[in-house]
């Protein structure tokens, strides 16, 4: 596993040795609506429902950078923080990093390999049973040390910085996907084989098969299930294995790559793998993904 760790990808052992550092802020990004921010699996972490953090409050679009900065600040993240996103499932953390990059939120944002499930497994292997934890009160790194003598307490750090948005660089919409059909642009489908083949519109893990009006795939899309990027433990595969799997797709000559799934979470994991582990910066994620394409009137579909 060590060869997949980058400046943006950390593992459970790395995090375990730094949990007491007030400058390390852990945010569990969950699929549970109404998740309580002060209850978590990882001790001291904050928990947030992914839509509450990463979508506009009323429209199907990303929040403005300033809004996302404020939301992250409310969860304890500031300009001096190392922010660890722990997904449950793991792709939600990759989605958080992708959205932040798209809208222009900077800072030290990292992905916990395997997310919350991997943390539970690592704790169990160490003889520690992870359970519902109460988060500690939000404490800024600058406030962690008591002033001595005439020293004055430092001012609270600034929120995470706003930087140049990368939306055009890493995000595509339906019109760009349609224009890419039949071109030198490779389209990768990160959904499960059942979704790719048109048997379902949502993963088998979903209790109700929903998410689009039609099943199938975007014409010409090549299947790269997000699960193929992970090992049996849910951790990112070694880089050598990832390169072998990607080589099977025959996309070396593609000018660009468009990745999609059902809601773009798994596609964002693909973007993270290509960008951070394979040093391949051709990938852009189709934000609407199959939820949009499979419901568009007149959109071409293969099955």
Automatic annotation (TrEMBL):
It comes from the Bacteria. CDD domains: TST_Repeat_2 (cd01449). Keywords: Repeat, Transferase. InterPro entries: Rhodanese-like_dom, Rhodanese-like_dom_sf, Thiosulfate_sulfurtransferase, Thiosulphate_STrfase_CS. Residues 20-124, 181-302 form the Rhodanese domain. It comes from Nocardia gamkensis. One of its GO terms (molecular function) is thiosulfate-cyanide sulfurtransferase activity. It catalyses: thiosulfate + hydrogen cyanide = thiocyanate + sulfite + 2 H(+). This is Sulfurtransferase. The keyword Transmembrane helix does not apply.
């Amino acid at each position: 596993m060590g060869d997949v760790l980058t400046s943006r990808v950390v593992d459970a052992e790395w995090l375990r040795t730094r949990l007491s550092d007030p400058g390390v802020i852990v945010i569990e990004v969950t699929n549970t609506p109404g998740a309580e921010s002060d209850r978590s699996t990882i001790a001291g972490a904050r928990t947030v429902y992914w839509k509450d953090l990463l979508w506009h409050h009323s429209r199907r679009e990303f929040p403005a950078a300033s809004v996302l900065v404020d939301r992250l600040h409310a969860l304890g993240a500031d300009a001096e923080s190392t922010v660890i996103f722990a997904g449950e499932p793991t792709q939600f953390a990759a989605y958080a990093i992708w959205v932040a990059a798209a809208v222009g939120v900077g800072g030290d944002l990292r992905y916990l390999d395997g997310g919350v499930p991997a943390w539970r497994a690592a704790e169990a292997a160490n003889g520690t049973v992870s359970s519902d934890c109460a988060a500690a009160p939000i404490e800024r790194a600058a406030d962690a040390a008591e002033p001595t003598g005439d020293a004055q307490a430092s001012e609270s750090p600034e929120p995470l910085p706003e930087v140049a948005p990368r939306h055009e660089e890493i995000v595509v919409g339906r019109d760009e996907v349609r224009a890419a059909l039949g071109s030198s642009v490779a389209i990768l489908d990160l959904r499960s084989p059942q979704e790719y083949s048109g048997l379902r519109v949502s993963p088998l893990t979903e209790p109700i098969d929903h998410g689009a009006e039609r099943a199938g795939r975007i014409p010409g899309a090549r299947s790269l299930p997000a699960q193929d990027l992970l090992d049996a433990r849910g951790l990112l595969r070694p880089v050598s294995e990832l390169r072998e799997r990607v080589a099977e797709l025959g996309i070396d000559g593609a000018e660009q790559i468009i990745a999609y799934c059902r809601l773009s979470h798994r596609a964002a994991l693909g973007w993270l793998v290509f960008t951070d582990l394979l040093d391949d910066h051709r990938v852009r994620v189709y934000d609407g993904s199959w939820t949009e394409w499979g419901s568009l009137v007149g959109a071409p579909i293969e099955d």
